Amino acid sequence: MTTDNKYKILKEFYSNGEEDKRLYADKAHHVEFLTTIRYIDKFLKPNAKILEVGAGTGVYSIHYAKKGYQVSALELVPENIKILKSKITEDMNINVTEGTALDLSCYEDNSFDMTLVLGPLYHLYTESDKKKAIEEALRVTKKDGYIYIAYLTNDSVMLNYGLKKRHLLDKETFDENYKFYDIPEEIFTTFYIEDFNKMMKNYPVDHITTVATDGLSAILREYVNELNEEEYKVWIDYHYKNCERKDLAGYSSHILYIGKKR
Question: Does residue 62 contact residue 84 with C-beta atoms inside 8 Å?
Answer without folding.
Answer: yes
